[in-house]
Design goal:
By secondary structure, the protein is an alpha+beta fold. It has 14 helices and 31 strands. It comes from Dictyoglomus turgidum (strain DSM 6724 / Z-1310).
Amino acid sequence: MRKKLFSVFLLIFIFALTFAQEGVYFGKIIDPDKYILGPGDKLRVFIIRETNQTDSFDVLVSPTGYVVLPLAGSVKVLNMTLSEAGKEISKQLLKFYPRSNVIVDLAYPRNMKISITGEVTNPGIYSVSAISTLDDVIKLAGGLKSSASLRNIQIRRGNKILEVDYLRFLKYGDVNQNPYIEEGDLIYVPLMGKSVKVLGQVKNPGIYEIKDGEKLKDVLDMAGGLTAQGSFFGATLDRIDGTRIELNLYDLYYGDENKKESANIALQSGDTITVFPEIKRVYVLGFVKNPGPIQLVEGVKVNPEGIEVTGQASMGAKISELIQKAGGILPNGSLRNIELRIKGDPNNKIIVDLYRILVLGEELEEEIKVNPGDVIYVPPILRSVKVLGQVKIPGIYELNPGDRIRDILLKAGGITEKASRESGELERIENGKKVVYKFNVTNAIQGIEKDNLELKDGDTIYIGELRRLVYVLGQVNNPAAYEYREGRKLTEYISMAGGLKDRADLSRVAVVRELDGETKVIPINMNEIINRGRSNLDIEIKENDIIFVPEVFVKGWQDIVNILSGIFYVYSLLKPIVGW
């Protein structure tokens, strides 16, 4: 156990020693799978024996590409990676040092000659180590001139030319754009090609070279993006011919694919992009009456008539208040899925359900703060139902998953006084055919599941009108329930019922009426109305009154119980039919 621990610690020590030496000699830790060996490289070989005794020695790669090992002799390593050479050397040495560990590392890289020309401060031929990269050589040559191209540096290597986008390494750390240099390479830095200028509220203002096909978003990314003070709606692009284009950076970063593409303008050499500082404002966009910016101020200003200045809101205004400032949500705008998009973070958005706040009275909005630069976006309604008939606010309403009849009736303001409490209809298209489901309105409002049906996109809810009726029974030609109309008199309803029969007893007509929860019987002598013109006895009939005309054999008001019995018997027969 002690031997194993000792071996582990020894290995750690050897690696630490190696890295420390690398730091002293060339300041880098190389990738053994990428470093290619050549003449002049010095390797260090460690042999850790079973007894924990460690031997080490250095070997130099000869001009012909060989290293000479004790006992094992010459081993060719030319153009091998350091990792491959280590395996080959270990294989040969283990023939003579069985049950040992062999570690091969680069003690010191070879030097080589390269040439760099073009737009560098000190062009020339330089001796560099074999682990130097393009970035190392450029720094050795004093750096690039301001006129240098960062996008199209060329490395001539034999018959090949490598084109390097050095800016991608500087801005984004793309190591593929900072290749290792090989012996004999000729580096050429040309003059800057097409370029644009980026000014104002970006993190790294300056002049940026552009390649064919690069657009506005590419250059803004090169400049580090907008600062916290940059305005998404306050940016311009000026062309050398004097043309000015107002830029919509909000759509560029936050819009859907079509809007992003439209806002991502193609650039021309000489363009100047300017991003202005953000005024303290928020943006209310989408399906509102007046989309656009709203300035946030400490105190909302008013004009001489005392009317608030448009386009302003108080600091700390709620989402609902800001939407109201934008003219309110359009009929096809969503109340349930409003987005609060946080400035500077395209992926950070909060979904706000204003229905829960404005209709149900919940105070969720208290926890949601709107800050300058934020965007409130009202999307369109994607799923909806239609509510018709006897509701307070008929119309089209947004449908959220799980919504039922009760939820939508609440959105529609509830049912009217004239609404039927029993008969509602849900119309739905299923398999291309219209299907109608009947439901009890009262049960649905109370949330009883069998009537409070779950809704689907495209459904139509219809709440019928409560039938306002008057019942004309007894000795008339057409006894039935008739539509009530305010102001109609007794004789009018009897006329609607086809008039009186021959055996009608005009002197003992009865009107049965509900008053304050009690049933009252009003006796009417129609002989007085018809024969003596006493129109004051032709009383106005009220909703739900029952007019009963008895036969002549009924004698005296003492038989009123018999009259009522007949009335209620007929009424019980009519109730299921007329829905009273």
